[in-house]
Amino acid sequence: MPWTAAGCALAVAGAVGGDGWTLVSRSCHWHVHSPAEVHEKVTKPLWLAILGNSVMRGALQALVDQLVPEAWQSFAGTEDVPGIGTNIKCWGWLDFQVGDLRLSFQDYRIWFYTEEGIRVAFERLKRVILEGPDLLVIQHYGPDVSQGQPPLVYQPLLSETLPAYFKKKKKGKIIFALSKRSPFKVALCNPQCSDRKRPHLWNHSIEGLLAKLPQDLRSSTTGRILAVDEAFVCMPLFLDGETDVPQRQASQHWHRYDRSAGPGRKVFGTAADAAGHWYLTELLTMAGARSPGAGGAGGVGGVGVANLSAKACAQCPQKPCCPWQPVPVKINHSLSVVHDMPQIKSWADLTMQSCGQLI
């Protein structure tokens, strides 16, 4: 899958990722939306929720950095202390809404939880599904991936929640995603490498999962339960990660932060940026968002992006492990449950256990 710079005739001015690159697949391509275009297209409430580890968090934070007014305030001057959480390094629930667009992230590492932790995580997942994100992305990892076996742990949960979810969200979708892998931690050397087989095995795994659902439910999942493998799109960008080559064992993240005090872009990494835009584009497409142009330049109905209302909630623990702890089933700081929230002058005023509306 080739990457092209913004100068290429295929690229639309102002509609590329933050690094000036966009991905053109051999078989298809999609539009990468500029912030003004996104907010112009969103004319009704839309909600993207991503559940996964810190690698997946980078995709959501890339969108927050681009789409939320004054988002730089969330990152500027935040100290990174290993093993200590922040509103950036959130090991809980992080929730932003700007205009009618809601962007949420939840830390989700089912392969690290205890048996009781898995039970809590699944109860929490049920709750999120039934709250009704328009697009829910769930990261999965486990031995069933490399063996091509279906992740059957999700079968009872889906059987219980999908009827109510599909009734509530007529176009809602759930994506099971295999996260980006660090190229320094996997073999890329020959045709027998297991990672070369990952996309096929993952599709087979999800097909196996859906085959175990009740017949009346199975037919309604067509085109609405999807499998995505992010790995191979990222491999051409393996030098664009969190750390440089001499530090290659230090991190598997494809995103990195600028923590300086001043304004500007704060989340970097083309692979994380691209992944965020895949899911955003899918959200806008499936929701039938209208074509841009009717609302005037630079915003919705002539209103600038900076003037859109913005609010957020965070419930981020200081320490998540060890062992890793799941997000509680019921949380107090979420846009799903908090409606009357205090006004804040800066995103820096949003604490690790709070909600606020930016003024």
What spatial form do the alpha-carbon principal axes imply?
Answer: globular
Report the structural category. alpha/beta
How many DSSP E strands?
15
Low-confidence segments: 5-14, 293-303
Percentage of residues in DSSP E strands: 15-25%
**What's the number of structural domains?**
2
Strand line-up of the largest beta sheet: 8-7-6-3-5-4-13-15-14
Distance between the termini: 43 Å
What is the helical fraction, as a range of percent? 25-40%
Global mean pLDDT: 83
Number of helices: 10
What can you tell me about this protein's structure?
Keywords: Signal. The chain is an alpha/beta fold and 359 residues long. The chain folds into 2 domains: 1-32, no CATH class; 36-287 and 304-358, no CATH class. The chain has helices spanning 35-41, 54-67, 72-75, 115-131, 143-147, 155-168, 198-211, 215-218, 231-234, 270-286, and strands at 3-5, 21-23, 46-52, 93-98, 101-107, 135-139, 173-178, 225-229, 256-257, 267-268, 299-300, 303-304, 310-315, 343-344, 353-358. The strands form 4 sheets. A 9-stranded mixed β-sheet has the order 8-7-6-3-5-4-13-15-14. A hairpin with a 2-residue loop joins β4 and β5 (101-107). The model is unreliable at 5-14 and 293-303 (pLDDT under 50).
